[in-house]
Design goal:
The chain is α+β, with helices and mostly antiparallel strands. 37% of the residues lie in helices and 15% in strands. A hairpin with a 2-residue loop joins β2 and β3. The termini are far apart.
Length: 274
């Protein structure tokens, strides 16, 4: 069975599908597009051929046009919309004492899963800590790790201000998880060289999707580092063997509102001259 099917009545043999295919598994003939030998093996299942066909003539054995979201011109963002959205994004470190509804979060995560991955492997997996008491427990594990680092590697602890964080924790102030009601980890199998990049990109997509649902987030760098170095925390998270965490976000409803976007540094650009 062919990996794709062509509606001959609709196909105008313009060759767009073959031109767009990143794996070059489609070739054009007088009869229209046909798969090359071994197409099943080399197809990365990206769906570009289905997405790019203006005549709705192209279907894959695993994807038909009616399974795809239509791209509506009326919903396209203007440059002003994009600039305002990205400039107004803030890392949220103050959260309301309010749980994140599961259905709301999963809708945001579904959008985040549209993030690009190497060769469209879609290898990113998610670990969600959705109970406040469990988030606090993870914060406590991070503090235990910091106490160990402070004792055994004081110079490293000083670089990352660990002593001050421990003191504040002991006084009742959480600067590790920031009293967030949810933690979200992205992880992937160690067999993929692209695992870290794919997870980071997916987390960035999630971070940008969350404000549309009234949610905010902040990267939890201490948590992710501790999870990779402190056995007690790794055990708490029960990660599968041969999988590595590559990033974490604190997630919740922002407690504060922002009224302006601070300036950032001018881009440091160097154009190559051959």
């Amino acid at each position: 069975m062919s990996i794709f099917k062509i509606d001959q009545e609709k196909c105008d043999k313009d060759g767009i599908c073959a031109m767009e295919c990143p794996a070059h598994i489609i070739k054009m003939t007088k009869q229209g597009p046909v798969p090359i030998e071994g197409a099943d093996e080399f197809c990365i299942k990206c769906g570009h051929c289905v997405a790019v066909c203006p005549k709705v003539a192209f279907s894959l054995e695993f994807l038909s046009p009616d399974q795809c979201m239509p791209i509506e011109k009326g919903l396209a963002l203007t440059v002003d919309h994009i600039e305002h959205f990205l400039r107004s994004r803030r890392s949220v470190r103050r959260y309301k004492d309010k749980p994140v509804p599961k259905d709301v979060f999963e809708k945001a995560l579904e959008i985040a899963c549209c993030a690009p991955t190497a060769s469209n492997r879609q290898i990113v997996k998610w670990l969600v800590i959705s109970k406040k008491e469990d988030v606090v427990k993870i914060g406590a594990h991070v503090i235990d790790w910091m106490r160990y680092v402070l004792k055994t590697h004081p110079k490293i602890a000083q670089m990352f201000n660990m002593e001050a964080l421990i003191i504040e924790w002991d006084r009742g102030t959480d600067r590790i998880c920031r009293d967030a009601p949810m933690l979200v980890f992205a992880y992937a199998s160690d067999e993929f060289a692209s695992a870290a990049a794919d997870c980071h990109t997916a987390l960035a997509y999630l971070e940008l999707a969350l404000p549309g649902f009234g949610l905010g987030s902040c990267w939890a760098g201490y948590v992710n580092t501790a999870a990779r170095q402190w056995p007690d925390l790794a055990g708490e998270l029960k990660l599968s063997e041969k999988h590595t965490l590559h990033g974490a976000l604190m997630v919740g409803f922002p407690k504060l509102k922002y009224y302006r976007a601070p300036k950032r540094k001018t881009p440091d650009i160097r154009y190559h001259v051959g």
